[in-house]
Specification:
The structure holds two protein chains of two kinds. Chain A is mainly α. Helix content of chain A is about 40%, strand content about 10%. Chain A is built from one helix and one strand, in the order αβ. Chain A is flat, with a radius of gyration of 24 Å. In chain B, about 40% of the residues lie in helices and about 15% in strands. Chain B contains nine helices and six strands. Chain B has a six-stranded parallel β-sheet, with helices on both faces. The two termini of chain B are about 20 Å apart. Chain B is of the alpha/beta class. Classes of the chains: A mainly alpha, B alpha/beta. At the A-B interface, helix 1 and strand 1 of A face strand 2, helix 2, strand 3, helix 5 and helix 6 of B. Strand 1 of chain A pairs antiparallel with strand 3 of chain B, so a sheet runs across the interface.
Chain lengths: ~60, ~210
């Protein structure tokens, strides 16, 4: 029973991997046109004062 | 000497990341100066340690990092022998990826369940992407909450073989003492006789990961 269950689990992983591979493939059917608009400068957010904080010991 | 950085990650919630991080860190602290980095906005690691008493404080400091994880880890590496990063249960914020980018080793706790196995495929994919930048990164799967009498648990090895990530020989059994230690803000190391089997598991795990 362990072997049968193991094969089912392994089969599920193989299926999930196949789906992930399909998701990662670029869609070659869609032709993308280059964006010719000028880039909008992004305002840089200030760094937080405390990027890390000791929580233990308090 | 720079710290070894270990990340405990799985984008699926409830896989035991914090429990593993806390007990792993408690065991590592017996070998060298250790710090836990709580990168989960839920703050579970900090909450856990905060439950401990003055008489029996949690033996490892915990810091939470809100941003610039990579920079903070680089800064702290010089002061410790081991850093354990408790990652959030998501890949969407990029925090887990930042942790993996600065880690030496990543441990992926995985429950013996079909849904957990399937969900881990996505994380395995993310790790492959990170390895392009962090070529030294070593990733390992770790079976967590194993129930030896349960057929599903016994069948895990066959499924784990489908991943390109090796699985550790050590595994963590489902034991009430792990949950009980959280209630007391401690680790299995401070649970006396009832904690001994769990301590042996964690020690065995640490021996294996330090040799890997």
């Amino acid at each position: 029973m362990t072997k049968v269950l193991g094969e089912k689990l392994a089969g599920g992983v193989r299926q999930a991997k196949e789906k992930q591979t399909q998701k990662n493939k670029p869609d070659t059917k869609i032709e993308s046109k280059p964006d010719l608009r000028p880039p909008i400068p992004e305002k840089e957010l200030p760094l937080p004062v405390l990027p890390s904080k000791r929580v233990w010991p308090d | 000497m720079l710290a070894q950085v270990f990340s405990v990650a799985n984008q699926k919630g409830g896989t035991g990341k914090t429990t593993l991080s806390m007990n792993l860190a408690a065991g590592l602290s017996r070998r060298g100066r250790t710090l836990i980095i709580d990168a989960d906005p839920q703050g579970s690691a900090g909450q856990w340690a905060g439950l401990s008493t003055d008489e029996r404080p949690f033996p490892v400091s915990v810091i939470s990092i809100a941003s610039n994880l990579a920079r903070e880890v680089s800064r702290m590496r010089q002061d410790y022998q081991y850093l354990v990063i408790d990652c959030p249960p998501t890949l969407e914020t990029g925090v887990a990826q930042s942790a993996m980018a600065v880690s030496d080793k990543i441990f992926i706790p995985i429950l013996p369940s079909p849904v957990d196995l399937w969900a881990s495929v996505r994380l395995a994919d993310a790790i492959e992407q990170i390895k392009i930048f962090n070529t030294q990164l070593q990733a390992y799967m770790l079976v967590n909450q194993l129930e030896p009498r349960n057929a599903m648990s016994r069948s895990m090895n066959q499924a784990l073989a489908e991943f390109d990530i090796p699985a550790l020989q050590s595994c963590i059994r489902r034991r009430a003492v792990y949950r009980n230690s959280a209630l007391e803000g401690g680790s299995v190391y401070c649970m006396g006789k009832r904690g001994e089997p769990a301590v042996q598991e964690i020690e065995s795990l640490i021996e294996e990961i330090l040799k890997a």
